[in-house]
Design brief:
about 5% strand, three-stranded antiparallel sheet, about 150 residues, about 45% helix, mainly alpha, Arc Repressor Mutant, subunit A, Helix-turn-helix domain-containing protein
Length: about 150
């Protein structure tokens, strides 16, 4: 018979109210070259996307692991201007954190979390950071793969 796991009780300084939800990001990601070279804004967007992930509930909804829907309005609430969101999503894709599927005018985009960031060395991360500065729009980013 397995042990019953204790539920985690948040500390007063960890939550605004009695909120019992949290977003998990492991230390190995924080310590990775890819994460260290992301802009603070891209990190904020990633955290917002990750907060949309609800484990098995999300996986059943999309019939795939690690996919979420996140409208731009949710990302805007994290302090990122709407006109800059695409730039930071492109950066997350470039560094191998996500793959995005564009939604549309009234349909939120889908984002799938990836593991490619784990394979990026410090030298590659420096180059990617410089490359990311060139991709202001989705068209700029998409043209890199078609040329």
């Amino acid at each position: 018979m397995g042990r019953k796991s204790k539920s985690y009780e948040s500390q007063k300084w960890e939550a605004y109210t009695g909120d019992r939800t949290y977003t998990r990001i492991f230390s190995s990601m924080f310590d990775s070259p890819a994460y260290k070279h992301l802009t603070p804004q891209a990190r904020s967007v990633y955290f917002t996307l990750k907060s949309q992930y609800k484990g098995e509930y999300t996986e059943k909804r999309f019939n795939t692991k690690g996919t979420v829907i996140c409208p731009y309005s949710d990302i805007e609430e994290s302090g990122i201007r709407r006109g800059s969101i695409t730039r930071y999503l492109n950066e997350l894709e470039l560094f191998g954190f996500i793959r995005s599927e564009s939604g549309g005018l009234s349909v939120a985009s889908r984002y799938t979390f990836l593991e490619e960031w784990k394979n990026i060395t410090n030298e590659e991360a420096v180059k990617l950071k410089q490359e990311a500065k060139n991709y202001k729009t989705r068209g700029d980013f998409d043209s890199r793969t078609s040329s």
